[in-house]
């Protein structure tokens, strides 16, 4: 096999590797943009109501969440009726998401979990729909009560959603009430749902790749009237945020990432091949190298399928437990944490946290539509993109790889902030909201 073919395959698998508004805070979302009922036994998909908006309509419409009781009853019925396989043949997770963990999740989901609690939390926030490039985009938009708040657009990834960011909204917008913040630390917060995810519309034609999403986010921030703002992302969110940065809209002051794209090309090639670590690596670089080797060897299965054949995944659209297991199998560290949670150990996530996110995928029937983003994207996730605007990096230890400072300094010539955190993984805002909040405050302090 030629080096060129090997490189193309490596880049493809690198791409597959990652899951890889108008009103002040007090405004409540109205009930005229509810999702239709549809995640029922008939299998129809709920979608955001368009309220008759044309493709070029720049209006911003309030959005309210209210799934029918029948959808929730159908979910519980399907969970309870799961046809279980036999137990894995090993005593660890090397064969995948373990039966005992999945059954504990299913038991709690069917008997104890209450979706209405998170639905009420969502409806207590200002949510909106606006049409950009012919597609409905859902977003949360919370303005701070403090003067001169810095606007930030925060983008989730897969298998995440807006649920990941709910814990950081209040600390970012009301800093004097959380984590020792000051009024001058305040942010206005915009959290959109990616196309094909959550309450955003599902693309009906190909072409909604991260480049197009980045353009849409720039339009969104202009539509909200912001003349200066910053951007944040991890997973797909980092990809979209870096692509926004490459477009360099004058309003975008800088960006923050919790999953930086910093891996030198020669290091990435060696890690993908499983070669021993180069002898000249520092301790931090060596640890990052080992993490990359592990991920390339053991963590690419789900991503390869979604990048190649997303429509084949009918099972996760039809079985809630199948969907849950698919989502849990994102990365080894996150799965280990989730398994501990369902064993009753206290962690940064709770059972309800985990099921809120999975249930959102189920009720919106976005298991397959979200997977198509992998098919759309043809680039790499860890490759250096030559971003030239100011960049801040928070390196969490249990991320797919913890970006070393040395790599970040080379990847981002305007690195304005770097910090290695003592705890946290891929879903940093969700799992460690205090660390995440204080990191954003520190990251953008020089840009205010």
What features would you describe in this structure?
With 448 residues, the protein is an alpha/beta fold. 42% of the residues lie in helices and 11% in strands. The chain has 18 helices and 9 strands. It has helices at residues 3-16, 69-80, 99-111, 115-123, 166-173, 210-223, 236-247, 265-273, 283-298, 301-308, 314-318, 320-328, 332-342, 351-364, 367-376, 405-411, 428-431, 433-444, and strands spanning 60-62, 127-132, 135-142, 150-155, 187-192, 229-233, 252-257, 391-395, 415-420. It has a 9-stranded mixed β-sheet with strand order 1-2-3-5-4-6-7-8-9, with helices on both faces. Strand 4 (150-155), helix 5 (166-173) and strand 5 form a beta-alpha-beta unit. Helix 8 (265-273) packs across helix 9. The longest helix is centred in the middle third of the chain and has 16 residues, at 283-298. It is globular and about 55 Å long. It starts with a helix and ends with a helix. The relative contact order is 0.16. Mean pLDDT is 90; it is low at 1-53.
């Amino acid at each position: 096999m030629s080096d060129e073919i090997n490189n193309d395959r490596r880049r493809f698998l690198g791409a597959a590797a990652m899951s890889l508004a108008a009103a002040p805070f007090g405004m409540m979302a109205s009930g005229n943009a509810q999702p239709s009922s549809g995640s029922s036994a008939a299998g129809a998909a709920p979608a955001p109501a368009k309220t008759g908006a044309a493709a070029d309509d720049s209006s911003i419409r309030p959005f309210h969440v209210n799934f029918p009781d029948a959808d929730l009853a159908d979910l519980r019925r399907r969970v309870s009726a799961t046809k279980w396989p036999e137990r894995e043949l090993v005593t660890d997770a090397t064969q995948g998401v373990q039966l005992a963990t999945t059954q504990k999740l299913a038991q709690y989901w069917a008997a104890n979990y209450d979706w209405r609690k998170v639905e009420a939390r969502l409806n207590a926030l200002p949510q909106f729909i606006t049409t950009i490039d012919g597609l409905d985009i859902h977003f949360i938009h919370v303005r701070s009560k403090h003067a001169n708040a810095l606007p930030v657009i925060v983008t989730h990834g897969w298998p995440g959603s807006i649920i990941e960011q709910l814990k950081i909204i209040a600390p970012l917008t009301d800093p004097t009430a959380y984590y020792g913040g000051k009024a001058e630390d305040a942010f206005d917060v915009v959290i959109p749902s990616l196309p094909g995810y959550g309450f955003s519309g599902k693309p009906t034609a190909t072409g909604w790749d991260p480049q197009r999403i980045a353009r849409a986010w720039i339009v969104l921030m202009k539509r909200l009237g912001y003349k200066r703002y910053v951007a944040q992302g991890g997973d797909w969110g980092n990809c979209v945020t870096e692509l926004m940065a490459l477009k360099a809209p004058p309003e975008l002051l800088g960006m923050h990432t919790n999953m930086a794209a910093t891996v030198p090309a020669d290091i990435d090639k060696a890690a993908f091949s499983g070669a021993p670590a180069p002898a000249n690596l520092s301790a931090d670089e060596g640890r990052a190298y080992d993490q990359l080797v592990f991920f390339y060897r053991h963590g690419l299965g789900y991503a390869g399928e979604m990048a190649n054949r997303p429509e084949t995944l009918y099972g996760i659209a039809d079985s809630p437990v199948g969907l849950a297991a698919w989502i849990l199998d994102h990365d080894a560290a996150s799965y280990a944490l989730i398994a501990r949670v369902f064993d009753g150990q206290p962690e940064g996530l709770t059972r309800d946290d985990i099921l809120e996110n999975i249930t959102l995928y189920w009720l919106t029937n976005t298991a397959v539509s979200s997977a198509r983003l992998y098919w759309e994207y043809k680039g790499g996730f860890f490759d250096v993109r030559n971003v030239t605007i100011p960049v801040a990096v928070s390196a969490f230890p249990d991320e797919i790889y913890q970006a070393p400072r040395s790599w970040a300094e080379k990847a981002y010539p305007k690195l304005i902030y770097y910090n290695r955190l003592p705890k946290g993984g891929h879903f940093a805002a969700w799992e460690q909201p205090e660390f995440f909040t204080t990191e954003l405050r520190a990251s953008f302090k020089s840009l205010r």
